[in-house]
């Protein structure tokens, strides 16, 4: 009965007015839609580019003077290393001609090699090229393996066991799972989804608070026989609907683009299901309400419409910065307490759902309740702020 009284009469009219104004603002609507679709497209494009660059790109090597050591050219040539033997030429000109690296064989290389000396090889690179670092590491690995093979052969030919130079053998065994590898690749997605809440609701929150104050329509609302908390609740629901729409669009776009992303080549299994998508949307709903009411309160405290835009633009960077710092500093967030903290809890839940990990339902419920409690406190603070006479004189 109490709920029916809240959403009846003047409150229902107020809700209708706030939702109509929010959804008729084409600028705010397009801003929410465009940003929501932008980051999934950028994430998919960057993942495809990363995989192609590291798995399909071939290193071009010019072996200058390599006609005297054909064995070197045969051993270096591979699927991802294209070797061209060049009789003569200038290394700088060869690098400018499209080669990633130039390996020059010294004039006394053959004689020094036969006499068991250490003849020199000269490697020319262009450090200003973005691909030179990867190409150099690739060649160094090939040369290192070849050098180790030759040393073993020389020791064996003289009756010396190669194991004398290698007292142990280190074998690296990767025990990571597709879920854990997926957590590294998709670690930025929860933060971007949370950022979407802020960006998608920013324009609406500023317009419904500082904007209405400058248009003097807020004064008309305050003259109506409505409690202040109902005004804040109606505006919060309208603003949160815009932010939540942006987050839902971002989730839908991300899941739609996942089949196009070469996750399998990175050893990642797509663990997101339809139920997982619905769950992610529901998890973000309490946070959308909290973000909306905080934005409204800050906009009401601002001096003008432009001041509110500036403050909220800075605010939207704070959560992403916080979550990035926690990820980069490798802070252990395994304690249940962290899942009760807004933003941090949603990040952990979203990350688990994206890679197929289990999420504790009691902790999700508790964390969502904490978020809703903060919404209630913020509504009470906003209702009290509406009673200040200085509110309308802030412009």
TrEMBL record:
<dbReference type="InterPro" id="IPR013525">
    <property type="entry name" value="ABC2_TM"/>
</dbReference>
<keyword id="KW-0472">Membrane</keyword>
<dbReference type="Pfam" id="PF12698">
    <property type="entry name" value="ABC2_membrane_3"/>
</dbReference>
<feature type="transmembrane region" description="Helical">
    <location>
        <begin position="245"/>
        <end position="264"/>
    </location>
</feature>
<dbReference type="GO" id="GO:0140359">
    <property type="term" value="F:ABC-type transporter activity"/>
</dbReference>
<feature type="domain" description="ABC-2 type transporter transmembrane">
    <location>
        <begin position="33"/>
        <end position="326"/>
    </location>
</feature>
<keyword id="KW-0812">Transmembrane</keyword>
<keyword id="KW-1133">Transmembrane helix</keyword>
<protein>
    <submittedName>
        <fullName>Sodium transport system permease protein</fullName>
    </submittedName>
</protein>
<feature type="transmembrane region" description="Helical">
    <location>
        <begin position="183"/>
        <end position="204"/>
    </location>
</feature>
<dbReference type="GO" id="GO:0016020">
    <property type="term" value="C:membrane"/>
</dbReference>
<feature type="transmembrane region" description="Helical">
    <location>
        <begin position="276"/>
        <end position="300"/>
    </location>
</feature>
<feature type="transmembrane region" description="Helical">
    <location>
        <begin position="359"/>
        <end position="381"/>
    </location>
</feature>
<feature type="transmembrane region" description="Helical">
    <location>
        <begin position="28"/>
        <end position="51"/>
    </location>
</feature>
């Amino acid at each position: 009965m109490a709920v029916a009284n809240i959403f009846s009469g003047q409150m229902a009219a107020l809700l209708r007015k706030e939702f109509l104004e929010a959804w008729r603002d084409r600028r705010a609507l397009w801003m929410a839609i465009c940003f929501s679709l932008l980051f999934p497209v950028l994430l998919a494009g960057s993942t495809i580019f990363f995989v192609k660059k590291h798995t399909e790109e071939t290193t071009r090597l010019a072996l200058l003077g390599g006609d005297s050591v054909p064995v070197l050219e045969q051993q270096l040539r591979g699927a991802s290393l294209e070797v061209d033997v060049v009789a003569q030429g200038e290394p700088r000109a060869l690098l400018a001609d499209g080669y990633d690296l130039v390996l020059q064989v010294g004039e006394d290389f053959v004689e020094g090699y036969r006499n068991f000396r250490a003849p020199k090889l000269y490697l020319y690179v262009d450090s200003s090229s973005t691909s030179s670092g990867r190409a150099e590491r690739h060649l160094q690995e090939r040369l290192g393996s070849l050098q180790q093979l030759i040393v073993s052969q020389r020791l064996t030919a003289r009756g010396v066991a190669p194991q004398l130079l290698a007292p142990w053998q280190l074998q690296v065994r990767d025990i990571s799972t597709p879920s854990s590898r997926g957590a590294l690749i998709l670690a930025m997605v929860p933060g971007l989804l949370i950022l979407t809440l802020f960006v998608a609701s920013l324009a609406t929150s500023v317009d419904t608070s500082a904007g209405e104050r400058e248009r003097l329509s807020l004064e008309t609302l305050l003259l109506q026989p409505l409690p202040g908390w109902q005004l804040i609740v109606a505006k919060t629901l309208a603003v949160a609907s815009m932010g939540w729409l942006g987050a839902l669009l971002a989730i839908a776009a991300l899941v739609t683009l996942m089949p196009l992303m070469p996750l399998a080549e990175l050893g990642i299994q797509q663990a997101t299901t339809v139920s997982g998508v619905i769950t992610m949307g529901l998890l973000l709903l309490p946070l959308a309400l909290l973000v909306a009411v905080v934005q409204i309160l800050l906009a009401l405290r601002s001096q003008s419409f432009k001041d509110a835009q500036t403050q909220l633009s800075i605010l939207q960077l704070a959560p992403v910065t916080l979550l990035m710092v926690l990820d980069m500093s490798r802070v252990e967030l395994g304690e249940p307490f962290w899942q009760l903290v807004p933003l941090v809890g949603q990040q952990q839940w979203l990350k688990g759902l994206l890679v197929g990990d289990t999420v504790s339902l009691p902790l999700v419920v508790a964390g969502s309740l904490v978020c809703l409690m903060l919404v209630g406190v913020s509504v009470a603070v906003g209702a009290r702020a509406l009673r200040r006479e200085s509110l309308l004189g802030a412009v």
